[in-house]
């Protein structure tokens, strides 16, 4: 990942590299989420190690990208379309850093559960494991889809991801209701059930960050019409 604005670099090139590196950041963050969730269903220490190492890389990369954004603004004084694109990417960097943090939280809960996510869920209701699997799959698809939004300003993709968020909310609500009911009836099982709820909540928040990235792109593209 390039770390500075080159002395002979023109504004379009600088913004293009910024978009490329933001997309690269998103790919790493998407892998973090995938590995963190995999740790819920099997004791795989390497998944937690990958998440921890990636979190450190993402934290540094986000700082680097924020520094480059400020340098681009100070050097070129962009306006209009270029400034709108920079604002989009700045929002994406910020939200991707948040997604990395939430993926790390999921990994922490997976370590405590020792890969017993299936067993804990099966003790709730027969369909609880499937609900969480589906929630995770939906969020991962959201993460994969947002790459096109940051890389190519794909308006159709951005709108689709925003509209699909309702499905994420539905599965989260279904799982939340089952977990809450089980906690009320089986207080001794509450600690592990609360950990699963924290996983689901972090997954939901990750999907919300994807929506915020998409909304920033849609807003700036709509604004340029006026």
In short:
The protein contains seven helices and no strands.
Structural class: mainly alpha
Helix content: over 70%
Strand content is under 5%
Mean pLDDT: 93
Rough outline: elongated
- Measured distance between first and last alpha carbons: 35 Å
What profile does the largest beta sheet have? none
CA gyration radius, whole angstroms = 19 Å
| SSE pattern, N- to C-terminal | HHHHHHH
Number of strands: 0
Q: Helix tally?
A: 7
Describe this structure in words.
By secondary structure, the chain is mainly α. It has helices at residues 11-38, 45-76, 80-113, 117-122, 128-152, 155-185, 190-223. Helix 1 (11-38) runs parallel beside helix 3 (80-113) and helix 1 (11-38) runs antiparallel to helix 5. The model has no long low-confidence stretch (mean pLDDT 93).
Protein topology:
Elements: H1 11-38, H2 45-76, H3 80-113, H4 117-122, H5 128-152, H6 155-185, H7 190-223
Helix pairs in contact: 1-2, 1-3, 1-5, 2-3, 3-7, 5-6, 5-7, 6-7
Pick out its properties.
0% strand, 226 residues, single chain, mainly alpha
